[in-house]
Amino acid sequence: MVITGLGTVSPAGPDTATAWKAACAGLPTAAPDARLDGMAVDFSCAVSAFDAHAVLGTDARRMDPFTQYAVAAAREAVADAAADGGHWDPARVGVLIGTAVGGLETWLEQSARLRNTGPRAVNPLTVPKAIGNMAAATVALDLGLNGPTLAVATACASGTTALGLALDLLRAGRCDVVLAGGTDAAITPLLSGAFDRLKALSRRRDEPSSASRPFDRHRDGFVLAEGAAVLVLERAADARARGRRPYATLLGYGESTDAHHLTSPDPDGKGARLAMRSALADAGVAASDVALVNAHATGTPLGDAIEARLIHGFFGSHTAVTSTKGVTGHMLGAGGAAEAVFTALSVEQGVVPPTANLDEPGADIADIDIVHGAPRSAPVPVAVSSSFGFGGHNAVVVLGRA
To answer: Which terminus of the chain faces fewer neighbouring Cβ atoms within 10 Å, N or C?
Structure first.
C-alpha cells in the first residue's frame, strides 16, 4: 500500500511543507505558553500560525481543537493526494484517527461553566465536541466519506496504530482508500500538572527551547505538544491509474503490549522488540535493509535509554537514527502519525532531519548513529518509525520507496 497524501498541523507549522522545513532545519518549537501560567512547567510546543476559523469557517465553533486539527490535516492530505472525491467511491474510503486524550479542552471548559454558573450554562454540544471518536467522525462528515470510521486509542502510539489498522483494512479489501493519522490538543494546566506529577516532563523553564532533548545526556523529560497528522493510503495500482506518484510504500506493521506497568516501559524492551520483529517480518525486510529509524525518543531518561538499546540490538551502529520530537515536542496521540509523515518524506527525498538539541548522547545511550547538528542527505530505501505509549502499547511501521 502506498502513501499518496500528507497533511499536518503541528508546532513546526500549519502545513506539511512548513513543518518539514522546520524539521530539516532542526528548529525547536518549545516556548512559554500563557495557557500554563503558574504551573511548575509553564512551556509547551504549541501549534503555530493556525487560525481555525480562517481554515474551517463557522464550523470551527462546533469542534474541539483536537477535531479542528484533524479536519485541517485531513483536508490537506486529500488535496495533496490530488483527489477531489470524484476518483473515490465514498463508501470505500475509511477514516482512522488516533487520539490519546480526545476533547480535553471542551470537558474542562464545560466543567468550569457547570461549577461557576450552573447546569444551564453547559453547552449542548459538549458531548459531540469532546468524545474521542469525534475527530474521525467529523473528518468523515467534512469530506463526505461513508466507509469504516474508527477512533484509535493506544495512548502515545495511537497515530502509528491507526496506520497499521489502515493497512489491515486495505489488505482485507474492506476499503480502497484510508485516511489514517492522529490528533491531540491537550495543552492544559491539568495535563501539564498530571504529567509533571509523574516526573515525565522537562523542567527546563529557564531555557525552554532546549528542553526537548532526545537521547541527550542532559535530557530530563518530554515537552507537551499538540497537533494532528493524516496520511492517505491506497493501493499502488489505484494510485498509478490516477497518475499520482506516491511518497512511499507502507510495507508492514507490528504491534505488541508490554504487560509490565501502567506507565513505565519494560526495562528489557521485550514488548518493543516483539513489535519491531513483527513489523520487519510483515514488511518482508531484514534489519540490515533498514537505513533509517525515526525513534519514539521523547527525551525521558528511562525511555530513551531502553529504546537506544533496542535500536542497537536490531540495527547496530550503522543505521541512521533521528527523533523529530526535538523539534515538535511530544504530540501524544498525533506523534506517531507526524513522525510517519516525516519518515515518508525522508524516504522520498533522501534526507534525514537532525535530532534537535542533541549536544552529547547520554552515557546510557547505546552506540547508535544519531543524526544531529544538520540534516543528512543519504538514500533511504527502507525506514522504520516507532511509537510507544502508556499501558505498554508498542507500534512500529516500516516504510519503503514507492
So the answer is: C
Catalytic position from the list 156, 175, 372, 393: 156
Grid coordinates representing 9 are 498541523
Say whether 330 is catalytic.
yes
- Selecting among 24, 296, 372, 393, the annotated active-site residue is 296
Helix axes 189-197, 104-116, angle to 10 degrees: 110
**Is residue 235 predicted with pLDDT exceeding 60?**
yes
Q: Which residue among 24, 330, 372, 393 is the active-site one? A: 330
Q: Name the CATH superfamily housing domain 2-400.
A: Thiolase/Chalcone synthase (3.40.47.10)
Residue 16: name the closest of 292, 323, 326, 339 by CA. Answer: 339
Question: Which pLDDT score is estimated for 268?
Answer: 87
Is residue 85 over pLDDT 80?
no
Annotated catalytic, 372? no
* Rounded average pLDDT over 64-88: 89
Per the annotation, the verdict on 156 as an active-site residue is yes
Model confidence at 242, in pLDDT bands (50, 70, 90)? confident
What residue spans define the domains of the chain? 2-400
Residue 83 has a pLDDT of 66
pTM: predicted TM-score of the whole model, two decimal places = 0.96
Q: What is the pLDDT of residues 252-291, one digit of tens each?
A: 999 999 999 988 888 888 999 999 999 999 999 999 999 9
